[in-house]
Specification:
Elements lengths: L1 E9 L13 E6 L11 E5 L8 E6 L16 E6 L2 E4 L2 E5 L5
Parallel strand pairs: 3-5
Antiparallel strand pairs: 1-2, 1-4, 2-3, 4-5, 6-7
Length: 99
């Protein structure tokens, strides 16, 4: 799993029929301080997240193990919206305070 920030949406009107009805989000991975870095990721949204939220996503074969993505050709899926994270007893991110 990777921490990332939702930075936008992706719309594809023509796609593989098994991908119909799925919502695609544009993500940028973040470090432990919540700073964005690295390449962009397009992921299927399995949890109803919105732009600006911090999320956890899985990629590779793990991306096809949610109810929504089972047996669908996706390589990344958002499977959690992050409320907070803590490192060494210190809260580094808390939803609503850093958004």
């Amino acid at each position: 799993m990777v921490l990332a920030k939702v930075i936008g949406t992706v719309v594809a009107t023509r796609k593989e029929p098994s991908m119909e009805g799925l919502k695609f989000m544009l993500l940028r991975p973040v470090d432990l301080e919540g700073k964005e870095g690295g390449g962009l990721v397009v992921a299927v949204d399995a949890v109803g997240c919105g732009e600006g939220e911090m999320v956890l996503y899985a990629s590779g074969s793990s991306a096809r193990q949610t109810r929504l993505t089972d047996k669908r050709p996706c390589d990344a899926v958002i499977m959690a919206i992050v409320d907070n994270w803590e490192v060494g007893g210190e809260i580094r991110y808390k939803k609503g305070q850093s958004d």
